[in-house]
Design goal:
By secondary structure, the protein is an alpha+beta fold. Helices cover 40% and strands 17% of the residues. The chain has a 5-stranded antiparallel β-sheet.
């Protein structure tokens, strides 16, 4: 079982001294944010529990992932706001917002690594049960033919590539928006071109391949696999998937004259909240990063 770290566990985070138990009662408290991350790790650990049915274990893993998104969009966003306003007030356990953020980044990175490890374990077991998630190199033969037709009819019409260059403003990427960046070369003049494709929110994340076994492929894998259809006359040198999480925290104003209007405005405003987290696929090319 994972124990949330106390103030005494965090040594000189962000260059700050940790109060000692002799001079402060802070060591008696767990940090709220780190305690929440420890709780979410326990949720993820349920995905390792072989006493649960396999798909229930996958559900626990999915829950831990969505929980982490919410944590960054609300709790971390609040701390980021305090840091931007140069608030140096200490939490109950004695940490400043900057120190808490430094500890959160470290713990969250470990949690994400663990989630990926658990996913690979579950994925291997799913294959043994006849459920498979295909990689791009596994798309061959009749499978490739069917997926290409599906891509042309169902996915290609709803995609809108956007050029990334000084003459175009960088497109707005919505909260949790999944995007793919392409590093292309125009065949006619060998000029380098960079394009961004935002996957519509309504697009199913996985496409099932017809057949007796349950085989699926992620939509972003499909888009990258059939990039030549999306960009005729170009060579696709590199591509990478990424997404952003935005500030979705809503501060309550008890003295607001019209709470309904206030919340309606706040909900619209948070759709364009500042970026809190950028997630990129593993092994992304430095030139794209």
């Amino acid at each position: 079982m994972t124990r949330p770290r106390t103030t005494a566990d965090l040594t000189r985070a962000e260059g700050g001294e940790v109060p000692s138990a002799a001079t402060s009662a802070d060591a008696r408290y767990f940090n709220r944010e780190l305690s929440w991350l420890a709780f979410n790790r326990r949720v993820m650990e349920e995905a390792r529990n072989t006493a649960h049915p396999l798909l229930e274990r996958l559900r626990f893993l999915s829950i831990s992932g969505s929980n982490l998104d919410e944590f960054f969009m609300v709790r971390v966003a609040g701390l980021k706001g305090q840091q931007m306003q140069e608030v140096e007030a200490h939490s109950t356990d004695g940490l400043t917002p900057a120190q808490q953020l430094a500890a959160i980044v470290s713990d969250a990175a470990d949690l994400v690594d663990s989630q990926q490890t658990v996913w690979q374990d579950i994925r291997a077991e799913l294959i043994g049960r006849g459920i498979e998630v295909l990689d791009a190199e596994e798309v061959t033969g009749e499978t490739a033919t069917w997926l290409e037709e599906h891509f042309r009819l169902q996915i290609f019409p709803i995609l809108t590539p956007q050029a990334l260059d000084p003459s175009h403003p960088f497109p707005f990427i919505p909260n949790k928006g999944l995007s793919i960046i392409f590093d292309l070369v125009r065949n006619s003049d060998k000029e380098a071109v960079r394009e961004l494709v935002l996957l519509p929110a309504a697009t199913p994340r996985f496409v099932r391949v017809p057949g007796e076994t349950a085989r699926y492929i992620a939509v972003e894998t499909l888009v990258k696999r059939f990039a030549p259809i999306l960009f005729p006359g170009f060579e696709n040198r590199k591509s990478a998937t990424f997404r952003v999480l935005r500030d979705s925290d809503i501060e309550l104003e008890e003295e607001a004259e019209d709470l309904v209007l206030y919340f309606r405005t706040a909900i619209k405003r948070r759709r364009r909240g500042r970026v809190i987290r950028l997630e990129m696929e593993e092994g992304i090319d430095p030139g794209l990063e």
